[in-house]
């Protein structure tokens, strides 16, 4: 029996090793190539340009890749792209090489925030002179349920946790601990409000956002430590009903879990900021070369 079990374990280990080795080549490629599923033709003066999209139809707030290829390639040519939103807002950028396909111009993982008719305006310069051209695309409604319903559904567990915390807080916390808890909550709320403001202004992907994220994490951890301290102080009085202490300890762990989630989000924000800085650096270098 022992020999049979050992043989099975060796077989499972061999299968796992083969699986890892067979998956190594796929893991070695950090980025997927750009896949164009739809294209539009644009005539910009003497230049005919093909605009490619990795997702079609385009939907609001849905990230996708854009590629722009003039006939004859991008060598010796330069230009700008102006995105004109349905409300008239404009954003102009230099045409730069796509990070995952250096033979074409493009936008890497870009989302159009508004539903409606967008205009992509190209201004090209090259050996044959200069020219401008437009292509219009219709951006459909944002996928998924409406934003208000999404926020309401996602906030239900948090509201239940807050209600449970407030009930236990009013029952067991001394006045001094209540004041400290209110201070931690206000710090977290103000920091979240500042982050929401930065999101609306489009500046959240910047180093300035880290101070508010750190403040949120610090406030949540401080509240959790305060909760554990009050739980430990009240534990001797709950000998007849130890379930209350267990429940309060579980609530403290849940608060720490929220801090852990925010910490993971901070790490993702740091990666996004680093990638944005790298993209800006690459654009600056390409502008110098052009």
Task: Briefly summarize what is shown.
With 290 residues, the protein is an alpha+beta fold.
Order of helices and strands: HEEEEEEEEEHHHH
Shape: elongated
Distance N terminus to C terminus? 73 Å
Give the overall pLDDT as a whole number: 78
How does this structure look, described?
It is built from five helices and nine strands, in the order αβββββββββαααα. By secondary structure, the chain is of the alpha+beta class. It folds into three domains: 1-30; 38-143, Macroglobulin (MG2) domain (Immunoglobulin-like, Sandwich), CATH 2.60.40.1930; 147-279, no CATH class. The radius of gyration is 27 Å and the shape is elongated.
Element layout with pairings:
Blueprint (H helix, E strand, L loop, with lengths): L1 H26 L10 E7 L2 E7 L10 E7 L7 E7 L5 E5 L2 E2 L2 E10 L5 E11 L2 E11 L7 H26 L2 H27 L7 H26 L7 H48 L1
Antiparallel strand pairs: 1-2, 2-3, 3-7, 4-5, 4-8, 6-7, 8-9
Helix pairs in contact: 3-4, 4-5
């Amino acid at each position: 029996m022992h020999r049979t079990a050992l043989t099975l374990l060796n077989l499972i280990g061999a299968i796992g090793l083969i699986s890892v080795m067979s998956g190594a080549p796929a893991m070695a490629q950090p980025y997927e190539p750009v896949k164009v599923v739809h294209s539009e033709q644009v005539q910009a003066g003497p230049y005919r340009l093909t605009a490619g999209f990795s997702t079609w139809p385009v939907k609001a707030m849905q990230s996708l890749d854009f590629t722009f290829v003039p006939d004859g390639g991008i060598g010796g040519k330069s230009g700008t792209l102006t995105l004109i939103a349905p409300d008239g807002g404009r954003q102009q950028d230099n045409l730069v090489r796509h990070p995952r396909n250096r033979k074409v111009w493009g936008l890497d993982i870009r989302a159009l925030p508004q539903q409606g008719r967008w205009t992509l305006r190209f201004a090209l310069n090259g050996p044959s002179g200069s020219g401008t051209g437009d292509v219009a695309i219709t951006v459909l409604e944002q996928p998924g349920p409406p934003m208000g319903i999404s926020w309401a559904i996602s906030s239900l567990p948090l509201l239940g946790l807050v209600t449970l915390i407030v009930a236990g807080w009013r029952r067991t916390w001394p006045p001094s601990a209540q004041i400290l808890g209110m201070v931690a909550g206000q710090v977290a709320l103000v920091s979240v409000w500042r982050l929401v403001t930065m999101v609306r202004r489009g500046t959240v992907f910047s180093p300035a956002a880290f101070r508010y994220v750190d403040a949120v994490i610090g406030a949540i951890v401080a509240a959790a430590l305060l909760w554990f301290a009050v739980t430990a102080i009240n534990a001797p009085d709950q000998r007849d009903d130890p379930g209350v202490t267990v429940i309060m300890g579980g609530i403290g762990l849940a608060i720490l879990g929220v801090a852990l989630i925010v910490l993971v989000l901070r790490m993702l924000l740091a990666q996004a900021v680093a990638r944005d800085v790298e993209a800006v650096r690459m654009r600056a270098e390409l502008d110098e070369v052009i």
